[in-house]
């Protein structure tokens, strides 16, 4: 295709099919698809988020910076787009309007973001560190004598969920209902039922915290000067659960996979040459769990890098592709934290510090307890979950010499 022709064309007019981000083929090898899209289209490429749901994927680093820092032309409010998609659209529960920081614009966004950022800013990091250790030990003890486990289902998922629930001040019975609702939403099997289950559980939590606040994120939201009503409170908690569960658990798994299979880390992490944080930074650059997200909806057609973006159609930032844009990528990235994995600009993730603490502590606890951890199946047998947004394994089987339970908590 003549690249100069792009200046008068919409992404939907490009020759050839849109890349289906939800397909097993894409999930099996995203880097090759990013390379092909970059070769064919440049910094913006036409994709589908679900069958019949078009979007533009931003795969150029500098284009992403422009969009991240221009919320006036690229607002995150999806309501105009939402009116054009069927009610049963499988990605609608992930993208639909909610009164929270990542689905709003203007003064509404400022109000919600200030409440969430302030509530998260009150997290006691020392206490969170102790909480992660307290939760990790009994989980490790539940499988350490068997010689094998699935890191995702037996360790990362329950540990991240329990750590987040402790931060939010969620009682176990409400947490269980919230967990089941989130599983339905992320699995996209019955997302509507998941939304209803999650909302019911979180509204009960809000009512409890209004009656008896404590030292937790939910109580700080309830007491914030923004004066959030019950519906708004519930929606901030939906966001905190959605952003606080899937990406951290996938980051634990993706980082452990790297550490177990990449010679740079497998031979050096435990002897101190490279740290867990080095491995995390590598994953956040090369294989971030939130691979394609930070979605905006242009108010009117707008020209970016000789490509016209349609009004009100999703523009999705590919953090994975932008981090590896040849225009900015030079050699090794160890000890380099300039990646886009947590977003940038007004919509950058305000929970980066507690999320990274949970993930790094989880990995360190597991490797300290089971230093001879090894991949339990040949790497080509690992399956990546088809998903337009996340880079997530279906499971991570590992094996190790059976070990006696460790002391401490539990």
Q: Judging by the overall fold, what is the CATH architecture?
A: Orthogonal Bundle
The helix/strand series, from N terminus to C terminus, equals EHHEEHHHHHEHHHHHHHEEEEHHEE
Spatially, the strands of the biggest sheet line up as 1-2-3-8-5
CATH topology: Cytochrome p450
Q: Mind telling me the CATH class? A: Mainly Alpha
Shape: globular
Low-confidence runs of at least 5 consecutive residues: 1-8
Number of helices in the DSSP assignment: 16
Approximate strand percentage = 5-15%
Number of strands: 10
Which terms would index this structure?
410 residues, Cytochrome p450, alpha+beta, 3-stranded antiparallel beta sheet, disordered N terminus, 16 helices
Account of the 3D structure:
With 410 residues, the chain is an alpha+beta fold. It has one domain: Cytochrome p450 (Orthogonal Bundle), CATH 1.10.630. It has helices at residues 24-28, 30-41, 61-68, 79-82, 92-95, 106-121, 125-141, 151-168, 172-187, 191-211, 217-222, 230-261, 263-266, 276-286, 319-323, 352-369, and strands spanning 19-20, 44-50, 53-58, 148-150, 292-296, 302-304, 307-309, 315-318, 374-375, 397-399. The protein is globular.
Chain-wise SSE layout:
Elements (H helix, E strand, L loop, with lengths): L18 E2 L3 H5 L1 H12 L2 E7 L2 E6 L2 H8 L10 H4 L9 H4 L10 H16 L3 H17 L6 E3 H18 L3 H16 L3 H21 L5 H6 L7 H32 L1 H4 L9 H11 L5 E5 L5 E3 L2 E3 L5 E4 H5 L28 H18 L4 E2 L21 E3 L11
Helix pairs in contact: 7-8, 7-16, 8-12, 9-10, 10-12, 12-14, 12-16
